[in-house]
């Protein structure tokens, strides 16, 4: 991985941004408001949107990400585009000796993601996979109170989002978004960050669709058995045949429970329920960007490694194969094959 002891020796880091969506806008705002970075160029899918974005942030609009990664006046490439392209852009940028920041997932393909991590090490370049859920109020509150509930034996994490009509956009496209728990990798990464290694994976997945490329609804239930014996159930759904929204995280231990419903948290023991203060979800992209610049300029450690993100991606890939085959996937077998 990137040798953070060799801190950035220049006055500013020159950045190229791939994407013009919500995450890209937050990245652009963070970059232009930090004097240590200069947003050199932007590229997006739609020329009109790219031109408007470039004008808003006073930067250069390009026609392809290939052109962007080859520019000599760019030091860092930030990837905030459709999931399908993450791996290819990251690999190309690293091959051109750029540092890379990419929104999760690093790739929709675990093998490609492993190649990107290896390339970053070989090039001694920064590869940072954004996982801002780890910085958020719910996750920090969970970490703070986890010891209180003793040995954890069961976790249920459910994120369900009704949308009717479902938007015909990349997040509902099989190829562009990827398998649901790969595209929404944070649902698993919260768990691996808190509870460590996974032993087995089971998963069931269903789509409702009227055309091959786009779906109107997806729904999945995945069960993880951790090496500690902990059982975790992850429920993920979005679209038209979903009727009740839910964003709930339950952690059950032998001495109590932690329940987070939306941004409301409770610590539960026998005869007592205590509210938990949960921090805001706002400003996390700014915080992540600042930490990246701190790392480049000062060698400050980041909050997540690409290897940790890659491991979770392999768990998500195991869930995909479990859903496709109906079989239990053993993570030890998965990791042995990748060596």
From TrEMBL:
GO terms for molecular function: nucleotide binding. It comes from the Bacteria. Residues 147-326 form the Gfo/Idh/MocA-like oxidoreductase C-terminal domain. Residues 13-131 form the Gfo/Idh/MocA-like oxidoreductase N-terminal domain. PANTHER family: BILIVERDIN REDUCTASE (PTHR43377:SF10), BILIVERDIN REDUCTASE A (PTHR43377). Belongs to the Gfo/Idh/MocA family. This is Gfo/Idh/MocA family oxidoreductase. The lineage of its organism: Bacteria, Bacillati, Cyanobacteriota, Cyanophyceae, Nostocales.
